[in-house]
C-alpha cells in the first residue's frame, strides 16, 4: 500500500489550507493509499542550523541529525510514496514553518561532493497547495514564477514531479465587520467561497488521487 504524507504549514487546523489538504487526503485514500496528515504548528522544530552533521564523511545520507520533532518526520517523508505541503501566503511568502521544513528537507539530501547532485536515490512526487488573499492575476504575475523555483529545487533534489494548486481571494474570517479589514469586499469573498472554493476542493481531491495512480 502506498503512503502519502500531507503537511499543513498553516496555524489554522480548520482553515482554507487545511480543508484543501483534507480533500487531497480524501482523494489519496479513495485511490487506495495510506495517508498521514500533520499540522506543523503542533511540532517543535527550527529551520536548518547549519551544523553540517549531515555532510560529514561518515554521516548517514538524507538524515537530519538535529534532535527535535521534525527529524523523525523527515525520515518518514523519505520513505513515503508522495508528499503534499500546504501553506497560506503571508507577506508574499509561505509561512515560516513551511520554510523551516523546506530547509531541513532539502539540505540533508543536497550533495556538496558535486554541484547540483543529490544523495536521495528515490523519487518523491510533491503537491504544493497555496492559499492567499491575492487575486489570481496577482498570483500569476508576482508569485507563480518565484514559487516555481521551489518546485524546481524539489525535482532536482528529490526527483519527483511537482503539481501546484493556488487558491486565491480566500475567505479569511466569517464576519468581516468584527475586524478592521475595510480593504476587502466581504460579499465578494463569500460568493467566491460558495462558487469557486468547492471547485478547488475537488481539484485537490483529484490531485490526491492522481498522486497515487500516476506514480507506480
N-to-C span: 11 Å
Structural class: alpha/beta
Overall mean pLDDT stands at: 96
Number of contiguous helices? 6
Percentage of helical residues?
40-55%
H/E series, N to C?
EHEHEEHEHEHH
Q: Strand fraction band?
A: 15-25%
Number of strands: 6
Principal-axes shape call: globular
Task: Give a short account of the largest sheet.
Answer: 6 strands, mixed
Rg calc: 18 Å
Uncertain regions: pLDDT < 50 for 5+ in a row? none
Descriptive terms for the model:
globular, 216 residues, alpha/beta
Describe the structure.
The protein has 216 residues and is α/β, with parallel strands linked by helices. Helices cover 40% and strands 16% of the residues. The chain contains six helices and six strands, in the order βαβαββαβαβαα. Strands 1, 2, 3, 4, 5 and 6 form a six-stranded mixed beta sheet that branches. α4 (136-158) links the parallel β5 and β6. α1 (16-30) packs parallel to α6 (197-213). The radius of gyration is 18 Å and the shape is globular. The mean pLDDT is 96.
Amino acid at each position: 500500500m502506498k503512503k502519502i504524507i500531507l503537511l499543513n504549514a498553516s496555524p489554522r487546523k480548520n482553515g482554507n489550507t487545511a480543508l484543501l489538504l483534507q480533500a487531497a487526503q480524501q482523494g489519496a485514500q479513495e485511490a487506495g493509499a495510506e495517508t498521514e496528515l500533520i499540522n506543523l504548528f503542533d511540532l517543535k522544530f527550527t529551520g536548518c542550523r547549519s551544523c553540517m552533521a549531515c555532510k560529514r564523511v561518515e554521516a548517514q545520507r538524507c538524515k537530519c541529525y538535529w534532535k527535535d520533532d521534525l527529524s523523525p518526520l523527515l525520515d518518514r517523508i523519505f520513505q513515503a510514496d508522495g508528499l503534499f505541503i500546504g501553506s497560506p501566503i503571508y507577506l508574499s511568502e509561505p509561512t515560516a514553518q513551511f520554510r523551516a521544513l523546506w530547509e531541513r528537507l532539502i539540505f540533508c539530501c543536497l550533495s556538496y561532493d558535486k554541484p547540483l547532485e543529490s544523495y536521495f536515490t528515490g523519487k518523491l512526487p510533491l503537491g504544493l497547495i497555496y492559499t492567499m488573499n491575492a487575486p489570481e492575476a496577482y498570483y500569476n504575475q508576482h508569485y507563480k514564477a518565484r514559487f516555481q523555483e521551489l518546485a524546481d529545487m524539489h525535482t532536482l533534489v528529490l526527483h519527483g514531479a511537482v503539481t501546484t494548486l493556488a487558491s486565491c481571494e480566500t475567505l479569511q474570517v466569517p464576519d468581516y465587520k468584527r475586524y478592521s479589514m475595510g480593504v476587502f469586499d466581504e460579499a465578494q469573498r463569500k460568493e467566491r467561497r460558495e462558487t469557486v472554493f468547492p471547485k478547488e476542493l475537488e481539484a485537490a481531491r483529484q490531485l490526491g488521487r492522481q498522486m497515487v495512480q500516476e506514480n507506480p
